[in-house]
Design brief:
heterotrimer; A mainly alpha; B alpha/beta; C mainly alpha; A: 7 helices; globular; C: 2 domains; flat; membrane (chain A); transmembrane (chain A)
């Protein structure tokens, strides 16, 4: 099993910060979406729709730095950076970061860190959705929603995570592979 | 004092077939100041990284420090033997402040914490930056950062000090200070110093030995030959026979009122009014680190500034970013910053689609590619081109966009003579045909004469247009 | 208080209240955190911001729960106050702890390998450069007539190339500055881990447990 080197740790953190800077720019959109959806009681949808961007650091890190734990670390360090930058969620950011990271890590672990293709990213999107949803089920009181609405939230969350953590991540890693900075084969 | 001996070193970087260093043999004597020179891409960085142990040695070739192989030293004592000061000042620190970085360095050497304050004080005092001790590293200028990097090496007390183009973006007074300190380290503390620089100007009074790297091999000159070589190296003179002072009624394209620039707390440009003249070619000169690139970044709204800048009578801050970016473009000094895609073909297609396609017809583009010796490379990955090829290709991509004003930051850097000729030809024709406004920053001055209309010099924090021939200072 | 222990306490309490529904404990934690923040002289503006954001989001969430679910008033009140506990309790940590102090404490007290502590710091200190790079990438694209959005692969592609470049440079610089993975280091600044820290941590924990135990139905 590959070990973590200082270069990988720095790369994962810089990636996480970059994602944070990009996500920062999406902040206003999140606020507008929340404000627009809240009166109809659909606020969580704003959260679900944009969650994919926030959890993208996981699959990206997992795909780029092919070491067990990189997806978790990518998300977790991202949340640590956010915490120190005065992100409003404070310490619970760290917990969410860890939960999201473990969620996307499971996808990579499921294929034994050997396959890096569509299957991996889809699996990762699926595991991220389930794990984070379970977390919100308790944390954000999702257990109080009617089943129908809960299913809508689940589907929207998976769609968002799949679009950003799956499709967009695949497009990005395709560019990296073509530029010869990532190995072309799915096996490392 | 450690003498470095390199024997039969052949090295090819991964994913490259042709070796950068070919059966290289050289000796750098202990306690001496050696200058390593050679054209860009000749392998100076590669050689320094091998000596520093940052790149693992290939099986062919040996590097010894006083007859001991570098690899035989335990990793933990490595930094006492050798340390490298990098070209890019801002990415060589781990910590937030100057003192914390020096602490980090000493912690790494497992120095007793009780001794640290004294060693840190001494290192800072030696380089003369005691007043920077509590400053945040990211807020220092490039020159100050290089001084901190040197102070770190002084604190580590490394036997061999390697420097890779350390003055690339450093102002002349700082360079002078650093050179004095390095010579002092050689003479008083018997450190072995190897400094790589492609530009030989201003070394004659400092350097003991010159090593010339070319085609993968090293030639070492004697002290006398070194002096002769350095004396023969005269910085290029700027010969501008056709420049004039702008006439008062010349149309302006970019006008700034009380424009002031600063970097951190340092004032780069004292507030002044300044105009860039339409449909002409203006050359900007000034010492390294004086703020020329910062001026360009301010013009494209990537740096903050005091005062106002107007583009055709409109405040540039009030224009839509995406509109303004089509009118005033910047050819970045780092070529890779310009590209968005993977292959040359894709990049050309993008410029073709969004640029001045009426003028840049496929035929014209093909001809330009041929003139720049980039033809037949459409499927190649941009990042696999040499830095010179990237530079030429970057220029073509930006010219095809044909913005009203094109700012060019060192467009000729690292190009050979044939390429410089081709680039100048392309610039001249396009400028004449499309009536572009070109503004250049260039240290490469040969052959610019007939091409430049105005010469804007930055000195003592002020821009001024120059009349006739002026000697370039840096 | 010792940074590692402080972080552990805050995170564990936040974790615990995520799975429990005791309004009084939430309120007590909010009150306690506010006192700490005021004693630590938090800027009024920061506090306002730390209040406005959860107020906005918690209101929207509770409103949604009320409309789309069948939650009791008690449950809604718990969810509403929980948001504030997260934010205020988190602030008691972030407002009183520097990243450097935490990294040192994790290295010294929690025995985190130094490569993680300093790798993180090296990247974190690059933040201004990272921000500027995103702006440069956007601008460079505009000059080529292309608008990059947060869904544009090219934005991330360029960002990752820069990240790879810088991580190489920083890692080399750390090596050149004598950092060796796994090698013993000394500490210029020792972060103490006193008995008092353990006591405070334990006490806080016990109080929260008792509160939760009493408050649970």
């Amino acid at each position: 099993m590959q070990r973590w080197h200082i270069r990988d740790i720095i790369l994962v953190t810089i990636l996480a910060i970059f994602m944070g800077v990009i996500f920062w720019a999406v902040g206003p959109l999140y606020a507008v979406l929340t404000a627009a959806l809240a009166p109809a009681g659909l606020q969580p949808l704003a959260n679900e729709l944009l969650l994919g961007i926030w959890v993208m650091a996981g699959p990206l890190a997992g795909f780029i730095i092919r070491i067990p734990g990189s997806a978790t670390l990518g998300e977790f360090l991202g949340s640590a950076v956010e915490m120190f930058l005065g992100g409003t969620w404070g310490a619970s950011t760290l917990i969410s970061g860890a939960v999201q990271g473990i969620g996307s890590e499971l996808g990579f672990a499921a294929v034994g860190y050997k396959v890096y293709n569509w299957l991996t990213l889809t699996l990762s999107a699926l595991t991220t959705t389930l794990v984070t949803f379970l977390w919100d089920y308790f944390r954000s009181g999702y257990n109080a929603y009617h089943l129908g609405f809960l299913l809508v939230l689940l589907v929207v969350r998976f769609a968002s995570i799949f679009v950003f953590g799956g499709i967009l991540t695949r497009l990005i890693t395709n560019l990296l592979t073509r530029a010869h900075v990532l190995p072309a084969t799915s096996k490392n | 004092m450690a003498t470095i001996t390199i024997q039969h070193l052949t090295y090819a970087p991964p994913a490259r077939e042709t070796p950068v260093l070919k059966d290289l043999t050289a000796t750098f004597r202990g306690g001496r100041f050696s200058l390593l020179t050679g054209p860009s891409g000749s392998g100076k960085t590669t050689l320094l990284r091998l000596i520093a142990g940052l790149t693992p040695l290939p099986t062919t070739g040996t590097i010894t420090f006083d007859d001991q192989a570098l690899a035989s030293f335990p990793a933990t004592t490595h930094s006492r033997r050798v340390a490298l000061l990098f070209q890019e000042p801002s990415t060589q620190f781990t910590m937030d402040t100057v003192t914390n970085e020096l602490r980090f360095v000493l912690e790494n050497q497992a120095v007793d914490p009780a001794q640290m304050p004294a060693r840190i004080d001494a290192a800072l005092a030696f380089v003369g930056i005691a007043k920077l001790r509590d400053r945040s590293l990211m807020q220092l200028s490039g020159g100050e950062q290089q001084k901190v990097a040197l102070a770190s090496i002084v604190a580590m007390d490394s036997d061999v000090i390697l420097l890779d183009e350390p003055f690339a973006s450093i102002d002349p007074p700082t360079r002078q200070v650093l050179m004095t300190k390095l010579v002092q380290l050689c003479h008083e503390r018997h450190k072995t110093v190897i400094l790589a620089d492609h530009d030989l100007s201003g070394y004659d009074q400092w350097v003991d030995h010159l090593t010339v790297l070319d085609h993968g091999m090293a030639t070492q000159l004697s002290a006398a030959a070194t002096q002769a070589r350095l004396a023969a190296f005269t910085p290029e003179r700027l010969r501008l026979t056709q420049v004039q002072l702008p006439a008062p009624d010349t149309p302006q394209v970019l006008t700034s009122h009380q424009l002031g620039l600063r970097r951190g707390t340092r004032q780069l440009l004292r507030p002044q009014d300044l105009a860039i003249l339409a449909h002409k070619t203006t050359l900007i000169t000034g010492p390294n680190g004086s703020g020329k690139s910062t001026f360009f970044r301010a013009l494209v709204r990537l740096s903050s500034y005091d005062g106002t800048i107007t583009y055709r009578q409109q405040d540039i801050q009030k224009l839509r970013r995406r509109t303004y970016a089509r009118h005033v473009g910047l050819m970045f000094q780092a070529a890779q910053a310009q590209f968005l895609n993977v292959t040359l073909g894709e990049e050309l297609a993008l410029s073709q689609k969004n640029g001045q396609h009426a003028y840049f017809t496929p035929d014209r583009v093909a001809a330009a590619l041929k003139a720049l010796q980039l033809n037949g490379r459409e499927d190649q990955v941009i990042y696999s081109l040499s830095s010179g090829q990237q530079k030429k290709f970057q220029l073509l991509c930006m010219l095809m966009m044909a913005p009203d004003v094109l700012l060019l930051d060192e467009p000729l850097k690292g190009l050979d003579l044939a390429s410089i000729h081709a680039v100048r030809q392309l610039l001249t024709t396009t400028q004449a045909d499309l009536k572009l406004t070109l503004v250049l920053i260039s240290h490469q001055l040969s052959g610019l004469d007939s091409f430049i209309d105005y010469h804007l010099a930055l000195a003592d924090q002020q821009f001024s247009y120059q009349a006739q021939e002026v000697r370039h200072e840096s | 208080m010792n940074p590692s222990l402080k972080l552990a306490t805050v995170v564990l309490i936040a974790f615990e209240i995520s799975f429990t529904q005791v309004l009084t404990v939430n309120l007590a934690l909010i009150g306690f955190s506010l006192i700490v923040l005021v004693v630590q002289r938090i800027h009024f503006k920061t506090l306002l911001w730390l209040t406005a954001v959860p107020l906005f989001l918690a209101s929207a969430l509770v409103w949604s729960l009320a409309l789309q679910g069948d939650a009791s008033h008690h449950f809604l009140a718990v969810i509403f106050t929980r948001m504030f506990v997260y934010v205020y309790l988190g602030a008691t940590f972030t407002q009183t702890t520097q990243p450097l102090a935490l990294a040192r404490s994790l290295e010294q007290n929690a025995k985190l390998p130094a490569k993680f502590a300093y790798g993180f710091l090296a990247a974190f200190n690059l933040l201004p450069k990272i921000r500027a790079e995103v702006a440069t990438i956007h601008a460079a694209a505009l000059m080529r007539g292309q608008v990059l959005h947060f869904w544009s692969p090219q934005l991330y592609f360029k960002v990752i190339l820069a990240a790879m470049n810088w991580s190489d440079q920083l890692a080399d610089a750390m090596t050149s500055h004598g950092f060796v993975e796994g090698a013993p280091r000394t500490y210029a600044v020792t972060i103490p881990l006193r008995r008092r820290d353990w006591l405070l941590c334990g006490l806080g924990f016990v109080v929260v447990q008792i509160g939760l135990f009493v408050g649970l139905p």
